[in-house]
Amino acid sequence: MNKIILTSFLSIAAVALFSFASSTVKTLEITNGTKYSIDEMWLTPSDSKEWDFEVSFDKSVAPGSGAEITLGDLKKDFDVLTYDKKADKYHEYDDFKMSDLASSNFVLQGDEVTPGKHGPNPPKK
Prior knowledge:
Blueprint: H1 2-22, E1 27-32, E2 40-45, E3 53-55, E4 66-70, E5 78-84, E6 89-96, E7 105-108
Parallel strand pairs: 1-7
Antiparallel strand pairs: 1-4, 2-3, 2-5, 5-6
């Protein structure tokens, strides 16, 4: 009987630990592989109807430069929206896979897509 209780307790503890670990925030380095500066950035799951996670930068991230970002609770394929303050333009990129975030350095690159998939662009700061 004690063995069953101990096994049940360990199973519950393992599930709780896994749930906590999967909800932790991930910090990673990004490299701006686009041809535009990034002053603001948003991430969202590809199937979302709005831009869910805002990423803040201390200063503009020039093309080819890097920055450290903190991800929200992103758990599936995602899209990215950037804002270039100098040009006063938004740039949207889609179809990034969670495997793109497997390493500690994510290179933001790809072809722009027509904006509007996730509703209106968020307001500029």
